[in-house]
Amino acid sequence: MDRKKTTTTAIILIAILAVTAGAVFFITRSAKNKNAAPGGFGGFGGRGPQTATAVRTTVAKNQTITDFVYTNGEIETQKSIEVFPSIGGKVVEMLVSLGSSVKQGDIIAYIDPSEPGSYYAKSPVTAPIDGSIITSPVKIGQKVSANSVITKIGDINNLQITAKVPERYVADIAIGQKAEITLQAYGEEKFIASVVRISPVVDPATRTKEIILNFDKKYDKVNAGMFARVKLFTVDFGGYPVIPQDAFVENSDEYYLYVVKDDSTVTKRKVTRGKNIDGYNQVTDGLAAGEVVVLEGMLSLYEGAKVRDISGNVEFVEAPPADKGDEKGPKPEGKK
């Protein structure tokens, strides 16, 4: 019995000694690390070096952005004329086809005005101007009157775009405005044109106003009859710095930018947005031209965060080395 009691007592003493040793080790280790600077993301809250966050930036520039309107149009000849016969009857001969070139006075068709049992005589239809046949002519055997259009002749060397602008935009259109024209046949290739004429009235049926645009130069690949997509530039907005809209951080209907400072840290700055056109925003208050703004990588940023600009707009500045005196800890009282 005494032997069993002695064994139990020994086990208890060993356990007490193990716990005591562990506590002493922990306290000693904590004391050694008391003056160590905590690390963590970017060194925030400690005296360790800050880790720089890689970002892309953009430079704010004072520039003009121009509003625009999209509409559709048709390529037409600047000068064209409809051809009528001088007398009614049946078309017995057609000497031209779509695209044919003609000279003034050329015979383009013959009309038989005679009635059954009467004398047969062909009446010629002639071209009133030089040009090309731009609409499909009537068919042989077709009955026509003096008011029937036989065909249409136009000058295909001088083309224009006829387009219609919705009524809500008519206050913004003016003679001389530029437009980019794209055609289905040529993908994203752009052809430049200018507004030369604006209808004085709005069409009550379509609530649109017709405009005419002339190409700024001759484009051989553009043909009459093509469908055109018109991007008409209307109102200019200038006088403020402009940056991509992706740079803004929105919070409770307020907008902020992370502006990069000379020491490669950022400051979160409240700004006022102006006109937004095609992915670019004016900044009417809070930003100056020439300042560098974070465009990508702002999700992990905070006030004073260190950044490394991989766009090359700002040269990276290393953090200053820590004060060696601080690393030794506070000096004992009474000593200087």
From TrEMBL:
The chain positions of domain CusB-like beta-barrel read 161-232
The source's superkingdom equals Bacteria
Any Gene Ontology CC annotation: efflux pump complex
Sample GO molecular function, one term: efflux transmembrane transporter activity
Pfam families xrefs: Beta-barrel_RND_2, BSH_RND, YknX_C
Residue span, Multidrug resistance protein MdtA-like barrel-sandwich hybrid domain:
81-148
Q: Where is the YknX-like C-terminal permuted SH3-like domain?
A: 242-308
- Similarity comment: family membership: Belongs to the membrane fusion protein (MFP) (TC 8.A.1) family.
- What NCBIfam families would the database entry show? RND_mfp
Q: What is this protein called?
A: RND family efflux transporter, MFP subunit
State the species of origin.
Treponema bryantii
